[in-house]
Amino acid sequence: MPALDLVATELTLTGRITTASNATFLGSIGDVVVVYKPIAGESPLWDFPRGTLAHREVAAYMVSQAFGWDVVPHTWLRDGPMGEGMVQLWQEQDPAQSAVNLVAADQVPETGWKHVLKGRDENGQVIALVHEDSPALRRMAVFDIIVNNADRKGDHILAMTDGHRHGVDHGLTFHRDHKLRTVLWGWLGDALTAEERDGVDRVSEGLHGELGRNLAELLSDEEIASLATRCARLRLAGRFPAPSGEMSAVPWPLF
Fold first, then answer.
1. Mean pLDDT within 22-37
2. Which terminal CB of the chain, N or C, has fewer other CB atoms within 10 Å?
3. Chain-wide mean pLDDT for the chain?
4. Of residues 33, 142, 167, the one with CA closest to residue 89
5. Which residues on neighbouring strands pair with residue 70, listed in sequence order?
6. pLDDT tens digits for range 177-230
7. Dihedral (C-alpha) 216, 219, 222, 227: value to the nearest 10 degrees?
8. How far apart are CA 160 and CA 70, in angstroms?
9. What are the distances in angstroms from CA 42 to CA 14, 27, 55, 58, 215?
10. Preceding amide of 81 cis, omega within 30
């Protein structure tokens, strides 16, 4: 039986994800379940060029592939019922797992978790934002630094049954200016591992070859140059950076 052509086979819509800020649909290509985000349904933003979010999502997948860590599910551009858009393989996460959580401030786990910040809920109770301390999530944090992810919310991290962690919703990436907003600040100041350094090197080297050529069809020259600079700076520093600038270091809402 011939392999299913994910670009040419008809994409059929089966539902809409109403919590998304941009038009986001569930669909199917044959028996493959996908997420479809048409460019025509993107909401204009003051700080990102109009009509570029789908391209940034595909660029994030390409960089994920260069890292070799499978952070971003398979993502590509294709035509659909509402025109060209981003299509991504649907991932069925484990409802029994959560990589990021809010807990009472006096109940932060002593091991296996990283404490990010404290705040108060609508009832005035002091709560803490925590995330798991795992190699999979560390790799995602490194990926976010390199792609300059401005929107790493807790719900943008999919906890898979086998322990893998997928990241989704990468439209707000690759800005030429510093935009890093994330809930994954738990390793602030920690040294990168050899595996993490090697991953950054693979991306940096790829920018001089096939990765760079492919990204040139999706991002501006300035954005690619900034990507290369982030790789060089992180590699030179050799550790997770601290928040910088006057903007919020975390996205809002957090989930």
1. 97
2. N
3. 96
4. 33
5. none
6. 999 999 999 999 999 999 999 999 999 999 999 999 999 999 999 999 999 999
7. -90
8. 12
9. 19, 18, 11, 15, 20
10. no
pLDDT at res. 1:
47
Query: How much is the average pLDDT of 98-127?
Result: 93
249, 181 Cβ separation under 8 angstroms: yes
Q: Which pairs count as long-range contacts for 228-237, CB under 8 Å and 24+ apart, including other chains?
A: 228/204, 230/145, 230/146, 230/148, 231/146, 231/200, 231/203, 231/204, 231/207, 232/204, 234/142, 234/145, 234/146, 234/192, 234/200, 235/197, 235/200, 235/201, 235/204
* Residue 129 to residue 108: CA distance in whole angstroms: 9
Pairing between β-strand 85-89 and β-strand 75-78 as defined by DSSP bridges: antiparallel
pTM exceeds 0.85 for this model = yes
Angle made by CA atoms 154, 93, 159, in degrees to the nearest 5: 50
Nearest to 48 by CA among 183, 223, 181: 223
Taking 80 as the threshold, does the pLDDT of residue 2 lie above it? no
Between helices 135-147 and 221-237, what is the axis angle to 10°?
130
Residue type, 231: C
Q: Do residues 212 and 159 make contact, with C-beta atoms less than 8 angstroms apart?
A: no
Give the residue carrying structure tokens 């920690």.
190
Which tokens belong to 182?
Answer: 């994330």
Interatomic CA distance for residues 15 and 23, integer angstroms? 11
Q: Which two tokens stand for residue 56?
A: 């940034």
Phi, psi of 236 (to 5 degrees): -70, -45
Residues 6+ apart with CB under 8 A from 156: 167, 168, 169
Give residue 19's pLDDT: 86
DSSP category for residue 97: -
